[in-house]
């Protein structure tokens, strides 16, 4: 036990408050390391080293690296989901709400690059059933986009030939890909990128009759 | 040496023809394994096992797993680049050529899911300078899309407010993301997905005056 005297306290000595704190530290350190080296390239030992605890203390919170990844990926997914659901529930016609969701999701990705990278890249490292547990029945996340597009199409605001399913995957691709190239201080600001992308995405699915009307009134 | 008597020939005995063949087998097996387990989760031993050669024989071709990944990723990148350059060089106005490139790239991704997955996912596992060596000066691949958009914008076929750089990243995101969700026999055929995506992407950057003209003539 002498080696622990000057190091971190053994798990049994951690009270609830500092325990919660340390679990959050553990998740933050792991998220950062996974984003830098990938899940496969990171070990529990390295994660423990980053926050100055013993590897054994990690097992107080998680039985395995996979359990840690699951918790991290689920929390990031749920944050993203809450954000788009909140935006989709605002006032406006379905196309205005879709535009707001697109802007808000793009900004969220740009401002949370590390977390988004870990979610999008490392989700695949979980077994299929644990991935499904996070994405929930019927892809709740994708469903927010799909439902708005369906609603907008029913209202004549989206071209009849657009498939809401394919269009939602098309939208998510262009916005999710932001994490691969967007860099603060190099690229234009998040708002500028988000507005341009949201404009292009909504233009891309509008029926031409709406364009005609808008062009006439401008 | 007795263990090799019934196994593969030692490297020195491989003649040029079968050597080339085996190198291609090695790359194919590695590509498949990387797509299934990720680069970090695959070992040279497992790659050698898949094609029934000794791990030592791998070193006849490659000094390291990284060198093997470099060759694979570079070859896939160059195939993609050749495809879009060939499509971009066809006849037509810049918007028609852009549409053809978008359709052709989307189909290429759908029909080469394993390769595209390894390229897009594992490129990041190479050191920065080797990534740059593949992407070449000024991102030759992205440049094909960017140049067509610039040309189309100069001809008044793309809205003046569209940034060719951001638009090319927007386009590549939605098309590259196909490798994450497109599955043959589950999703609509590659041509259907490719046409819908190309239509939406080109609509998304057109100036509204063009829409007006098209709506009137239809």
Automatic annotation (TrEMBL), chains A, B:
DNA-binding region extent: 43-62
Annotated GO MF terms: DNA-binding transcription factor activity; transcription cis-regulatory region binding
Keywords for the protein's UniProt record, in alphabetical order: DNA-binding, Repressor, Transcription, Transcription regulation
Protein name as it appears in the record: TetR family transcriptional regulator
